[in-house]
Design a protein that fits this description.
Layout (H helix, E strand, L loop, with lengths): L12 E2 L2 H11 L6 E5 L5 H8 L4 E5 L3 H11 L4 E3 L16 E6 L5 H10 L5 E9 H8 L9 H9 E9 L4 E2 L6 E8 L10 H10 L8 H7 L23 H15 L1
Helix pairs in contact: 4-6, 6-9, 7-9
Amino acid sequence: MLVKPKKSLGQNFLHDKNILNKIIHASEITPNDEVLEIGSGTGNLTELIVFQKPKKIYVIEKDGNLAKGLDKKYNNKINIIKEDVLKIPNEFYSKKKFLILGNLPYNISTKILSNWCLNNKLRVSKMILMFQKEVADRILANVSSRKYGRITILSKWKFDIEKVIDVKPNSFFPRPKIDSTVLKFTPKKKIHRLIDSKNLEKITKVFFNQRRKMIKKPVNILFKNFKFNYKKFNLNPSDRPQNIEVDKYLKIVNEYESLEN
């Protein structure tokens, strides 16, 4: 399919067969899977997905010309959704269990991932997703490292995450100016329960608004009407947001929810 990539949509089409095959291998598609591919582009990965013969294939492709080309090529083998992935209603994800694959648009990749982590209607068997390497490093980051932050916490709340492969610019057309990384997300067997996932988003946003400042200020903002018990969480007012483990943030959300109710 000959197409001119659109800069406005951040289009970089993956054509490296070695990388495409590694993504398919990591996904371990079975005949029972409902596969959701994000941003199929010219269909290089779609072709390999179709070859695996999963139960159903959904494709989200915002570009009308690309969607038309995919429809012509694969006809009734795939279900094309011509829409911005950020505008897909939550109801679409309910009563399904997806295996998600995608080379996410770099400018909105963290927003897409955050939305999925916070969406309680979304059920997945696994996700194999490509990010800008710098973003992937933030997702994988360890506590107390410079790259540890909100997207680390949101992702690690629900998923065990591992690196599949780093990808060089020459694997794409046109070549981006940065390296990329493919990550594998496997849902945790036991997910820490929150009343409302939006509270995790709210609390991490307040804490990481000034990531190098002491946590005393965000704690006072969030718990202004209550006395926060630092000892209960083995914390000190002088600690920094990036030095607090994921499970402690989840417990802080529980505390916040119990006081709010």
